[in-house]
């Protein structure tokens, strides 16, 4: 089987001939591909065209040549399927037809291979486009997500703040959010929430909830009133959009005291309970909660209070933690509380880091959105001079 190029003839498959290529001019295939059907030269020395061919007159001594052109379905002649010999031979119409059939088989195989290559290239381009599109969507989602979260944690003297956010899957905007902002004086507002759904609709509700909380907190610092205002906002938005959308959230006011502690007042709207991690190793779950936001108009949200002493920490989280599965079982709030009892530290950064490490044990890790935010009161550090003064006074 040969393929005829512009100036070369390539022997792509051979039997009985150790040739890979020859020039086009001396090759008989260059003439055979111009024929409409099989060609047979029984004795090349007697053929008026072939007798002067170098393959006939030279050492090779070609005498017999029969070929059928390899012609594509759209009429292009690519080469030949041919039989040669050094002695004259005769052919029958049936043998020439067999040669033509072989040439057709070659065309079918070539076109099948070409179609497969085209499909592979097309599939590769599709994958590249999908990956490019996926990367663009992820970048848009990541950028949009960043606009729904505070850019950095504020520095608060005497306290430590830390937060973590994980959105899954990456190509969608998550529905969890958190926020921290000052209320004036020594008061700070902390909020965390989880809106229903994912994507653009969830992002719209997240933005609405976050800024509605901020707006309500300007009018009043009472957590129960802030949550009631947010509930009214979401209920009104549902009526305007004619789309049921809901949210769970916690709004918390932390106020530093002169003694170095922090007074905490919060209201919970159907959200997982905040957990107080005491310096002595004990934990306290703030479980009292009102209904989910947007579920019922005129809902009421009780205000809970607690005091964070030096070395105490307060942890907020979304249900991506408690709904996750660990060792085949739902993790749940009970297992979270038990795991927190063995925590190594209470400060905000260590608590958030502890939760991130915990997520690596989930099945699979990070399957859902997770937002975590923590605040802690710095422990009292007693200097050697202070200790010396105490001992001196004791003496």
Structure description:
- The strands form four sheets. The protein has a six-stranded antiparallel β-sheet with strand order 3-2-1-6-5-4.
- It is rod-shaped.
- The protein is built from nine helices and 18 strands.
- It is 35% helix and 27% strand.
- With 395 residues, it is α+β, with helices and mostly antiparallel strands.
- It starts with a strand and ends with a helix.
- InterPro entries: Bact_Sigma-Reg, GAF, GAF-like_dom_sf, PPM-type-like_dom_sf, PPM-type_phosphatase-like_dom.
Order of helices and strands: EEEHEHEEHEEEHHEEEEEEHEEHHEH
End-to-end C-alpha gap: 111 Å
Tell me the radius of gyration. Answer: 41 Å
Largest sheet: 6 strands, antiparallel
- Shape assignment: rod-shaped
How does the helix and strand content classify structurally? Answer: alpha+beta
| β-strand number | 18
Mean pLDDT: 83
- Main sheet: strand order: 3-2-1-6-5-4
- State the helical fraction: 25-40%
Q: Give the low-pLDDT segments.
A: 382-395
Beta content comes to 25-35%
Please count the helical segments.
9
Organism: Cryptosporangium japonicum
Keywords: Hydrolase
Pfam families: GAF, SpoIIE
Domain PPM-type phosphatase: 161-377
Brief overview, please?
It is built from nine helices and 18 strands. This is PPM-type phosphatase domain-containing protein.
Q: Any chance you could write out the topology, listing elements then pairs?
A:
Layout: E1 2-4, E2 8-11, E3 21-23, H1 29-32, E4 39-41, H2 54-57, E5 64-71, E6 77-85, H3 93-147, E7 159-166, E8 176-184, E9 187-195, H4 199-219, H5 223-241, E10 247-256, E11 262-269, E12 274-277, E13 283-286, E14 303-308, E15 313-317, H6 319-322, E16 325-326, E17 329-330, H7 332-340, H8 348-359, E18 370-377, H9 384-394
Antiparallel strand pairs: 1-2, 1-6, 2-3, 4-5, 5-6, 7-18, 8-9, 9-10, 10-11, 11-14, 12-13, 12-15, 15-18, 16-17
